[in-house]
Automatic annotation (TrEMBL):
Its cofactor is FAD. InterPro entries: FAD-linked_oxidoreductase-like, PRODH_bac_arc, Proline_DH_dom, Proline_oxidase. GO terms for biological process: L-proline catabolic process to L-glutamate. It comes from Aneurinibacillus aneurinilyticus ATCC 12856. It catalyses: L-proline + a quinone = (S)-1-pyrroline-5-carboxylate + a quinol + H(+). This is proline dehydrogenase. It is an enzyme of class 1 (oxidoreductase). It holds the Pfam family Pro_dh. Keywords: FAD, Flavoprotein, Nucleotide-binding, Oxidoreductase, Proline metabolism.
Length: 319
């Protein structure tokens, strides 16, 4: 990124955590519909039904899918329980529809900020339900302050439920050591660069060094013959991954977020690689939208265009 792009990304990450701005936008009858139009480039909608419709559409096009009910940093016990119930209903409806795919979630959406035991118990309940339908639960990674708790809960749960996977952020220096331990567990490992703004003493900035570390982590998991999701939209990085033939391994897939570089994911699918699209739904899309814009500040232009002239209703054509 150029210096102005880095500044824009940092500003967007700061805005993402500003509860005052979030509350103002959510309560504004004028701004909320406009911002939602921008968000709909990256989310399937605000309801579970919209998420399931999108999932079926993408499955019909030959993609694997991961579906998430958006939310994180939930501070009320009632709200965490309601989120857990929403995930249970999502798993039930996916299973009934024979969508034997992946459900992704943040542990802070189901109780991590209240009590790690609540988050663990809810994760186990979801994993048990998912197991009956051959559905995978993929635990996302959050800010570095939560990493130890997330990994501890995952390791405890994964001993009993191999259908739980875990996400690793390549930009954290600790991830090189973490990934060695995680390969002792059966769950799929998803490697991302990392979307959160972290201190420079614990995380790398976007750079060639980070790309090299990403490739290093991928190589270790591939060589261990461990189930792996390569989650990136970085085209030069993807080219290197293809040149090294990592995507040709049967236990490896490439995963991308809905609405970002559909051309790259379609290219991977058309070349016979297992290609997964990460779909989201829900009303807590504000933070998610800010992160998508921060990752690639040029998306601000698309967001502005979407506010003025919404994209075509058939928004899956590009896939």
């Amino acid at each position: 990124m150029s210096a102005p792009q880095i500044q824009a990304a940092q500003a967007l990450k700061a805005i993402a955590r500003n509860e005052h701005i979030k509350s103002y936008l959510q309560q504004s009858e004028e701004l909320y519909p406009l911002i939602l139009q921008a968000a709909k480039r990256f989310i399937t909608g605000e309801s579970k039904q919209e998420g399931l419709v999108a999932a079926k559409e993408m499955l019909g096009k030959g993609y694997a899918i991961s579906l998430e009910y958006i939310g994180e940093n939930t501070k009320g016990e009632k709200e965490c329980r309601e989120a857990k119930e929403e995930f249970l209903q999502l798993i039930e409806e996916m299973g009934t529809a024979s969508i034997h795919q992946t459900v992704s979630l943040d542990l802070s959406h189901i109780g991590l900020l209240i009590d790690t035991e609540i988050a663990y118990d809810y994760l186990i309940e979801l994993a048990e339900k998912a197991k009956s339908y051959n559905i995978t639960i993929m635990v996302s990674m959050e800010e570095s302050s939560k990493t130890d708790d997330i990994l501890n809960i995952y390791k405890k749960a994964a001993r009993h439920y191999p259908n739980i996977g875990i996400t690793v952020q390549a930009h954290l220096y600790r991830s090189l050591e973490d990934i060695h331990e995680l390969m002792d567990y059966p769950g799929r490992i998803r490697i991302v660069k990392g979307a959160y703004q972290e201190p420079c003493d614990i995380a790398m900035p976007r750079s060639k060094e980070l790309n090299d570390r990403y490739l290093q982590l991928v190589e270790q998991v591939v060589k261990a013959n461990h189930p792996l999701s390569i989650a990136t939209h970085d085209e030069p990085l993807i080219r290197q991954i293809e040149q090294r033939h990592y995507l040709a391994y049967p236990q490896v897939e490439i995963e991308m977020l809905y609405g970002i570089r559909p051309d790259l994911l379609k290219h991977a699918k058309d070349n016979g690689y297992t290609s997964r699209i990460y779909l989201t739904y829900g009303q807590e899309w504000y933070l998610y939208l800010c992160h998508r814009l921060a990752e690639y500040p040029e998306n601000l232009y698309l967001a502005l265009a979407d506010m003025i002239q919404p994209a075509s209703p058939d928004k899956y054509d590009s896939y």
